[in-house]
Amino acid sequence: MHELAITESILNIVLDEAKAAQANKITKINLVIGELSGVVSDCVQFYFDFLTKDNAAEGATIDFKTVPAQLRCRDCSTSFNPKDSAWLCPSCQGASVEVTSGRDCYIESIEVE
Amino acid sequence: MKIEVLKGITSANDAIAAQNRQVLDRHKILTLNIMSSPGAGKTSLILQTIDRLKHQLKLGVIEGDVASKIDADKIDEQGIPVVQINVGASCSLEAQMITPALNKLPLENIDLLFIENVGNLICPAEFALGEHKKVVISSIPEGDDKPAKYPLMFTEADAVVINKLDLLPHLEFEVAGFRKAVEGLNPKVKIFEVSCKTGAGLEAWCSWISAEAKRA
Fold this sequence. Notes:
Order of helices and strands of chain A: HEHEEEEE
Largest sheet of chain B: 7 strands, parallel
Structural class of chain A: alpha+beta
Distance between the termini of chain A: 32 Å
Number of strands of chain B: 8
Structural class of chain B: alpha/beta
Oligomer: heterodimer
Largest interface: A-B, 36 and 33 residues
Number of helices of chain B: 8
Radius of gyration of chain A: 18 Å
Mean pLDDT of chain B: 96
Radius of gyration of chain B: 17 Å
Shape of chain A: elongated
Mean pLDDT of chain A: 93
Shape of chain B: globular
Low-confidence stretches of chain A: none
Largest sheet of chain A: 3 strands, mixed
Strand content of chain A: 25-35%
């Protein structure tokens, strides 16, 4: 879906960072991806390999650190992971829930030489 | 050598969205990002709103579609300034597509701008465009399980419009259950029940927009 735009965005950021550090080659990109961010790692990897031909990021590995989704019930304060994708509180079956973790989606660091 | 980056993956989009927002704020234009599945009634709701508010507010529309200018032609027939964006392979409008569209609109003559996003309940939730309010339309034929299946979209919304209420006698859709699910995800959300075909419920929707436009 929108992984092409996301991958282009990642690539622009890391190429700028590498240039600013006067590095010739990016060897690794460390991403933090929340389970709820909607980013599909396999697709990002696929587009990345395609988009990095002949630039400083060619051959770089991407490390995806996944942050699990965490929801909190507003009624009974139970925190839970919506494993089966139903956003219902496992303790009180309440549907009033808020996202407390899992929406992150950022580049933590890059490794260059 | 390791370089700390700590930049959001959509940070470039967010920065451009913030610039768009500045332009809109400077012209005091209330901007609504209208999102839904294909066929839920985004264009119908915009047309019905134009019909009711055109004597009170100066309107403009940005239309986002994968292809065609069918929707833009419908808006143009109403004499409302409209710009069509065809996104091609992209599944959502992005902030950088909105910037040139804003340049094509007579901004000094617009109080209320609708941005009709690409029909999709997933990707448009991820990309800020510069809008003031996010509106999600859910229609009766889609079924009442959409908040459970696409929770993030409903979590992000400022308003949810339940459209095609006239079909309620013919289809299974529990309005109370749907409202409860949406309010559970998003306690501050405004929910409107409308039929763009019969006009039912559109007054409340238009009153909300008028009140928000006065604040812009």
